Amino acid sequence: MDFINSYAIVAYVAGPIARFADRLRNDLVPGTGHHAHVTVLPPRPLSCSIAEATEFAARLVAQFDPFEVRMGEVKVFDSSQVIYLSVTEGFVELRAIHDVLNTGILELKEPFQYVPHITLGQQLQPDTFRNSLELAQRRWREFAPAPAIRIDTLTLVQQRTNSAWHDLAELALGRVPAVG
Description:
This protein has 180 residues and is of the alpha+beta class. It has a single domain (6-172), classed as Alpha-Beta Complex (Cyclic Phosphodiesterase, Chain: A). Helices cover 29% and strands 30% of the residues. The strands form 3 sheets. Strands 2-1-8-9 form a 4-stranded antiparallel beta sheet, with helices on one face. A 3-stranded antiparallel beta sheet has the order 4-5-6. A two-stranded antiparallel ribbon has the order 3-7. The mean pLDDT is 90.
């Protein structure tokens, strides 16, 4: 699939895990400008206006309460040789949001089963792949224990060029739990 002029929905990651993932990703694939995130709805073309897609997604996302995500271990998608940080806690919630969003005007028969994760390295050279994986695993072990990530907002993004994704709209998850 050509990702130019594609749209996706992501949960940006902040704090120590974002700094870890951004730094490691830049070390593995220098010049990667993507900020650490969990893709909730993978890239796809739109068959409607951005305003319609935003309204549709916002209504669906608002049905879900904010939740926490915890990262697991460094793994590899064998079919694509993508090195990623797995999700342990929050996996079910991310999967449910994905499944609800992948309906109606946003529906797409996706080429891969949805697996929530943070990408650490992709399009790596075959001769450096093993070293890159070992580096990612070692740094993650040294980083632990990882704090939880709170997911309360998703972002609709558009890829306009091969390397640049642009934020279009924030989508707030539903009720925010009372404090205290």
